[in-house]
Amino acid sequence: MKKHLVVALAYDRLCTFEFGCTVELFALERPELDVDWYDFAVCAVEQGPIRAAGGITVQAPYAPELLTLADTIIIPGWRDAGELPPPQLLTWLRAAHARGARLCSICSGVFVLAAAGLLDGQRATTHWRYAERLAQRYPLIEVQPDHLYVDNGQVITAAGSAAGLDMLLHLVRRDHGAKVGNLVAQRLVVAPHREGGQAQFLPRPMAQGEQGRLSKLLDWLRSHPAQPHTVASMAERAAMSPRTLQRQFQQATGFGPLEWLIRERVAIVKEMLEDPEVPLTQIAERAGFGSEASLRHHFRRLAATTPGAYRKRFVLR
To answer: pLDDT tens digits, residue range 30-43?
Structure first.
């Protein structure tokens, strides 16, 4: 069976961090995962030296023709949000999209997809500094300025820098399931899962004491998902008023406390579904949903599929 080919674009004035995240995720061999890991290649989209931020020079072994074979194409930022990409590159990307390839951008890379017309009528995000410029230049795009990443199925866009890593881990979870995604995050020593709808930054930094209390509460909730939780009980544990807790959850995660908790529970369900021996009633209890009906409702709402379909796709071999 042909391996999934991930191709990263390279160009002069390359964004080193975003490019490095892509290489780290997909170029390394991961035999310990016991899955068909990706093939990875770097494609030069223009002639001449490829200089990257920090005085680095990159040698890309492949020409743009490789894009005709790519299953996933990643644009690790674009060198200048005000500079139109080469027309030939846009033609290659349109052709890849037409044949079903998955296209992903990090940070200013969204301007390449936008210039190709591949985001018209869709939601997209980018670094918060570029969001207004993107919306003004491409009014057909529904810009989500606060999101870490936006997944439209075939086209996925991420905000700046580290949010790109969240998006790349999201791709791994999509392709190989929650358990493999968590193992890769563990190897990278990063949080295993951040929802795309979480806020990019806090409009008002929290005081150090407040931040510490919220962080401890999040850790405790993740460790005790099966317990019944209400806004009042969470606020009491964090030594905050319910109003303060609501505000800080929204600022820190982009969700209210109960919606955040439901999403954490769905993430737990995804991993547990990959063990075929655990019945759905038991999963519902352990994750804190209480009933199969509640689990099914929230799982379908957030995962856009049924627990049974998810299990069938990602069940442990």
So the answer is: 988 989 999 999 99
Which residues, 6+ apart, have CB-to-CB distance to 78 below 8 Å?
Answer: 11, 15, 85, 108, 109, 110, 111, 112
DSSP letter, residue 160: S
Out of 1.10.10.60, 3.40.50.300, 2.40.50.140, 3.40.640.10, the CATH code matching 205-316 is: 1.10.10.60
| DSSP β-ladder status, 50-52 and 56-58 | antiparallel
Taking only the tens place, the pLDDT of each residue in 49-79 is: 899 989 999 989 899 999 999 999 999 999 9
Please enumerate, as own/partner, the contacts of 249-256 that have beta carbons within 8 Å and a separation of 24 or more: 249/214, 250/199, 251/199, 251/202, 251/203, 251/204, 251/206, 252/199, 252/202, 252/206, 252/214, 253/195, 253/198, 253/199, 254/146, 254/147, 254/195, 254/197, 254/198, 254/199, 255/195, 255/197, 255/198
Residue 11 has pLDDT above 80, yes or no: yes
Q: Is 207 exposed, middle or buried (0-12, 13-18, 19+ CB in 10 A)?
A: exposed
